[in-house]
């Protein structure tokens, strides 16, 4: 006859310790097996189709006795590298002080802490002057630094891995010609355990597929060029694709929009309501070149910086290729049934009704007239029509017509600064001059009169956006 333990009997401390040890051993075994499978998968796929424009490293270096970084011997490679570096917007992230281009030190805020960008000038002590071409290639393609340290994905190696060897070497050749700057950026400020770089092995397991771009034989050369740019150096998904809980890109929502530092990077799929399906090719190319898509949108915030530092320098062929590629993506409506640029009508009665009226509270129409009408016209129709430096209309404006007034509010708070070959656009920031109540009142007036009347924002929400580090 067997004996049973009483139901309230607890395991002994020794038994609990053994059980905990066994659980940890099992977890460690599972992690090791997962990593081993990851390594085996890559080994098995090394023999898969090679990108058609990839060449062995010696051939990519070019012929001749000079080193690939010798600007005097290979000026065409350096010129190409400068174009590619602009396409990748390298200067934007690696320049905190414009007097020290490419010297790094820019703070990038993440949910896990703050990352400071490194110095990529050819300084031998604080930059990449002692990096070999293989070191540079490994960083771009694999996300691994010179000393074997795992790089954080704030550096978009997830996309840069698709860039050909020739193009990576051209970028390196160009960086070899910039002025070396002796400057050591601050150390990263990441919380434990996110400051443990080795953990990136597991992040990569779920969020990174190393390998060069392979053209789709079923698509046109123009489409494939656009895919190579958008999925690679231009790294458009970094802002326009939502992220998973690990901060990796969600493959199920590519280009459907995401939020960065309080700014909404809008849906750029070809859906006519939720995305850019209603834009003409010329409008999209104009937006890339100038930051203005007439009748649709004007770039502000991070996108204004992208236009200023990167896309305005693209040649017409690459602009067309990007347009062709975006047109070919699956449309994502995201629950939107009406395009953002279809809203609005000129102000009339509500503005004229202010004449002779004593205002005793925060009034959006009055604040609009006092702070905005001199540039955007009291009707909201803008000043300057379609001239490069025009003050944009708020009618049929995708920021005013957005379901969320966040970008409109951020524009009021921080203004706009966008310098291109065509115009130097400047809207002053009102964050220091207006309270949260006043900013909310202006934003709500603009959305009600010129945009989506269902969109609204509270003073507390303005305060939260104001607190976002830029």
UniProtKB/TrEMBL annotation:
Keyword Heme tagged: yes
A GO cellular component entry from the record: plasma membrane
Binding positions for heme c 2 per the UniProt entry: 236, 239-240
InterPro entries the record matches: Cyt_c-like_dom, Cyt_c-like_dom_sf, Cyt_C_IC, Cytochrome_c-type_DH, Membr-bd_ADH_cyt_c
A Pfam cross-reference name: Cytochrom_C
Cell compartment(s), UniProt: Cell membrane
Domain Cytochrome c: 76-179, 221-330, 359-450
Annotated region (Disordered), positions in chain: 1-21
Lineage summary: Bacteria, Pseudomonadati, Pseudomonadota, Betaproteobacteria, Burkholderiales
Cofactor(s) needed: heme c
UniProt feature, compositional bias: Polar residues: 1-11
Keywords: Cell membrane, Electron transport, Heme, Iron, Membrane, Metal-binding, Repeat, Signal, Transport
Xref: PROSITE patterns: CYTC (PS51007)
PANTHER family, sorted: ALCOHOL DEHYDROGENASE CYTOCHROME C SUBUNIT (PTHR35008:SF8), BLL4482 PROTEIN-RELATED (PTHR35008)
Name of the protein in its database record: Cytochrome c
GO molecular function: electron transfer activity; heme binding; iron ion binding; oxidoreductase activity, acting on CH-OH group of donors
Binding site for heme c 3: 372, 375-376
Record note on cofactor: Binds 3 heme c groups covalently per subunit.
Binding positions for heme c 1 per the UniProt entry: 90, 93-94
Keyword Zinc: no
């Amino acid at each position: 006859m067997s004996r049973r333990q009483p139901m309230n009997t607890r395991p002994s401390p020794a038994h609990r310790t053994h059980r905990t040890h066994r659980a940890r051993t099992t977890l460690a075994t599972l992690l090791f097996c997962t990593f081993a499978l990851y390594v085996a998968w890559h080994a098995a796929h090394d023999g898969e189709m090679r990108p058609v424009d990839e060449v062995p490293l010696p051939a990519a270096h070019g012929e001749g006795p000079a080193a690939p970084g010798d600007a005097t011997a290979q000026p065409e490679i350096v010129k190409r590298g400068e174009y590619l570096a602009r396409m990748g917007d390298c200067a934007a992230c690696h320049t905190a002080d414009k007097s020290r281009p490419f010297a790094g030190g820019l703070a990038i805020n993440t949910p896990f802490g703050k990352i400071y960008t490194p110095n990529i000038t050819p300084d031998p002590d604080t930059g990449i002057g002692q990096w070999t071409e293989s070191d540079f290639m490994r960083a771009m393609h694999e996300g691994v630094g010179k000393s074997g340290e795992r790089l954080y994905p704030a550096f978009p190696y997830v996309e840069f891995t698709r860039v050909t060897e020739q193009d990576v070497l051209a970028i390196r050749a160009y960086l070899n010609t910039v002025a070396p700057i002796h400057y050591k950026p601050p150390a990263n400020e990441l919380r434990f355990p996110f400051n443990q770089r080795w953990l990136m092995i597991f992040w990569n397991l779920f969020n990174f597929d190393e390998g060069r771009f392979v053209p789709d034989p079923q698509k046109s050369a123009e489409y494939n060029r656009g895919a190579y740019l958008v999925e690679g150096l231009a790294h458009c998904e970094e802002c326009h694709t939502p992220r998973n809980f690990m901060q990796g890109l969600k493959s199920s929502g590519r280009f459907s929009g995401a939020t960065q530092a309080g700014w909404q990077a809008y849906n750029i799929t070809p859906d006519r309501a939720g995305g850019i399906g209603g834009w003409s090719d010329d409008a999209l190319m104009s937006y890339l070149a100038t930051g203005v898509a007439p009748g649709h949108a004007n770039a502000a915030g991070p996108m204004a910086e992208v236009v200023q530092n990167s896309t305005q320098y693209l040649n017409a062929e690459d602009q067309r290729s990007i347009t062709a590629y975006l047109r070919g993506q699956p449309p994502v409506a995201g629950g939107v049934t009406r395009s953002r640029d279809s809203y609005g009508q000129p102000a009339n009665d509500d503005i004229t009704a202010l004449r002779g009226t004593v205002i005793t509270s925060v009034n959006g129409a009055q604040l609009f007239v006092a702070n905005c009408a001199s540039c955007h016209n009291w009707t909201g129709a803008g000043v300057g029509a379609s001239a490069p430096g025009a003050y944009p209309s708020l009618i049929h404006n995708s920021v005013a017509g957005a379901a969320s007034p966040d970008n409109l509010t951020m524009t009021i708070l921080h203004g706009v600064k966008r310098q291109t070959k065509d115009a130097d656009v400047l809207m002053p920031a009102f964050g220091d001059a207006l309270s949260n109540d006043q900013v909310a009142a202006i934003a709500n007036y603009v959305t009600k009169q010129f945009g989506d009347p269902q969109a609204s924002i509270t003073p507390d929400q303005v305060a939260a956006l104001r607190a976002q580090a830029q």
